[in-house]
Amino acid sequence: MEGLYCRLEPLAAERHAEALYTAFAGAAENWTYLPQDPPADFSTCRAWIETVASGSDPLFHALIDKHVGRPAGVAALMRIDTANGVIEVGNINYAPALKRSRAATEAIFLLARRVFDELGYRRFEWKCDSLNAASRRAALRYGFTFEGIFRQALVYKGRNRDTAWFSIIDREWTRLREGYARWLAPENFDAEGRQLQSLGALLDADA
Question: What CATH number does residue 63 fall under?
Fold first, then answer.
C-alpha cells in the first residue's frame, strides 16, 4: 500500500527486523499494552517477527517511513471475518520518531482504504486496553466511533484488561476518506511542516 509519506508492505524478518529493532530501541513503554514484551536483543526481535510474519491472521505489515526510507513501525489486520465483512486493525507499534507524523496517520488511512475500497468490508474495528489513553485518543482522532467497554475481556501480562471498542462502518467511510485526503495533501502543511487544518476538523466537516 503506497502513500505520499509511507508504504505498508508484508512484514518480513529479512527485510525489516534489523531496522525495526533499531527503531524501537529505548522505547520500552511502547510494549505496555501489547501482548508481547520488548525484545531483549536482536535475535529475540527477529524470532518474534519470523513468527508473526508467517501467519495470515493477524496479517502483519511493516510501515516504511518514506522520508527516511526505513521501517519505523508495524500494524496488523486481524480478526478477519470475511463472512460478515468485519476486520480489526491492531498490534500497532510505532517507533518514537514516527509518532504524531503524517506517515503514522497515512498508515491508518491506507489500511482503511484497503478494508473498505479494495476488500469491500462493512466494518473496521479498533480495540485497546481501556487504560491506554493514548490509543483511545488516537482512535477518536482517526475517525473511529467509541462503542463501549467490554469488562474483564482478557487477562494478559498477569492482569485484567477491560477493552475499549471503536469502529468505522462503511456508510461513514466516504466522508472520512475525503477528510483524510484533505489533511494529507501537501498544501495542508506550511514550510515548517505544521498542519493548517487539523484532521479532526476535516473529518467532522461534512458530518
Answer: 3.40.630.30
